[in-house]
Specification:
This protein is of the alpha/beta class and 342 residues long. It has 2 domains: 179 residues, Rossmann fold (3-Layer(aba) Sandwich), CATH 3.40.50; 138 residues, Phosphofructokinase domain (Rossmann fold). Helix content is 39%, strand content 20%. The strands form 3 sheets. The chain has a 7-stranded mixed beta sheet with strand order 3-2-1-4-5-12-13, with helices on both faces. Helix 1 runs parallel beside helix 9 and helix 6 runs parallel beside helix 11. It is elongated, with a radius of gyration of 21 Å. The termini are far apart. 50% of the residues are buried. The structure holds 6-O-phosphono-beta-D-fructofuranose. The site of 6-O-phosphono-beta-D-fructofuranose has 11 residues, from loops. The site of 6-O-phosphono-beta-D-fructofuranose (F6P) has 11 residues, from loops.
Amino acid sequence: MKVGILTGGGDCPGLNAVIRAVVRRGLEFGYEFVGIRDGWKGLVLGDTVPLTKASISGLLTKGGTVLGTSRTNPLKNEEDKEKLLQNIKELGLDCIVCIGGDDTLGVAAELYDMGINTVGVPKTIDNDLSGTDFTFGFDTAVSIVTEALDRLHTTTEAHHRVMVVEVMGRHAGWIAVYGGLAGGADLILIPEEPFEMKDVLRVVEDRKADGKNFSIIVTAEGAFPKQAGGIITKDRALDAFGNAKLGGVGELLAQEIEDKTGLETRFVVLGHLQRGGTPTAFDRILASRFGVAAAELIEEKNFGRMVALSGHDIVNVAIREATSKTKTVNKEVFRVASIFFS
Ligand code: F6P
């Protein structure tokens, strides 16, 4: 059995731990492995690298992805699609392990329908992929946000300021809610609940009236005011999957708060800091479990499936099902976080 492995979309702490685990378990079954460089792009170009026990050594703790990644959509035009199918044939791949979020796995689902054996591993720091309780990388991102909020608290309080902290979360506010709850945010704004600017101002002013002379507001990059009717972007460019480059809501909020309340306000965009560096213990373990389970799905010839976490168990679901809708924030956790607002 010759197995290709690729990592696609935004990188995520734990990708290398998955690669290591798939290869370690697969070698026990006697498989040969080929790493595909830069996601689907590598399969269009035929750009691959052998993966052996020696080459995956030391990957458990390493951030990023040794295979590289891209947001290439190989099914966007016929020419790329033909090249991709030809390369799968020429490389003699019996199966492709696709480690990615909804875009990468959406392609894996399409290919499976076209008769290519694919197995999915759910990846995104945003944790917005359906079919799994958690994706690896999310816990690391939440830890980074929590540490940032702890640090921002001391400086914000010392200067009696309002601090707006913009975190990642394109379609869902998981990082904002978990990070904000862990870091003691006074207000959390998420894409699932469009906000009214007057409510934001009220929180800041109520806190001042209560004698608290600082406030920390966490906003997901995909949050937006009701009146705006949709996401805030700084630039109109779209990637190959049609995703906009988000950003700007933190700055907009900070400007508005300072203008309307007269309180000194700053904003911080945590950006790619949330995706870099070594994974937490939780993510190393989840990534290793996912990788082992993915190799075992191949051995069972259970293709078109994605490994997933359900409670404490590793299960599998149809890739198509996982990519069919966005997993929005757990309402109970958001309710708990909101008890601490203002
Ligand atoms: O999809 C994951 C993600 O981290 C989003 O939260 C964010 O909007 C996006 O990637 C950023 O992408 P890029 O690295 O291409 O700027």
